[in-house]
Amino acid sequence: MLITHDTRCALDTVVDLVNTAPEDEPASDGLPDVAALGDFVRNHEISDVGTLSEFDLSAVRKIRGRFASVFAAPDARTAAGLINELVAAAGTTPRLTDHDGYDWHVHYFAPGASVADHLAADCGMALAFFVVAGEQERLRRCEAPDCRRAFVDLSRNRSRRYCDSRTCGNRLHVAAYRARRKEAAG
């Protein structure tokens, strides 16, 4: 599956957005305030975003939950329905652009759109490409028991199970190794 630069950026953005959601307690929200949303926008180089407000923060948190539902969708039809709702509500207006030193690419958000609509349109379309390609199962959650972070499995054979093999994957492999050693020592 060919993934263009702008689609990859949108995928990284939507994964990071979903992963800002609080796991168990609202105090652990990765977007606690407008300043954090501003940092998120800058860190992901989200273009054409004006001054952010509490309204923007609330709207982004809402679509974050809707994107989380896409990652939890049991099948492509469910994922497609969720993505269609997100993209339609954003009022997509596809247009070609070549800003900030990047070659031609497509923006799906309307000029002057809110940051929430921008994310819903661009990130929604990036996820839509996976459903269209029959690759919805690549939109996953980490299989580590104490981690449910979202990720997109871009491995060749669709075998990635953990959000990060150096943390979650390694921790589980070390635990399994220690359990085997303990059992062998008996």
UniProtKB/TrEMBL annotation:
Residue ranges annotated for the Zinc finger CGNR domain, each copy included: 138-181
Stored InterPro entries: ABATE, ABATE_dom_sf, Znf_CGNR
Protein name, entry field: Zinc finger CGNR domain-containing protein
Organism: Streptomyces djakartensis
Taxonomic classification: Bacteria, Bacillati, Actinomycetota, Actinomycetes, Kitasatosporales
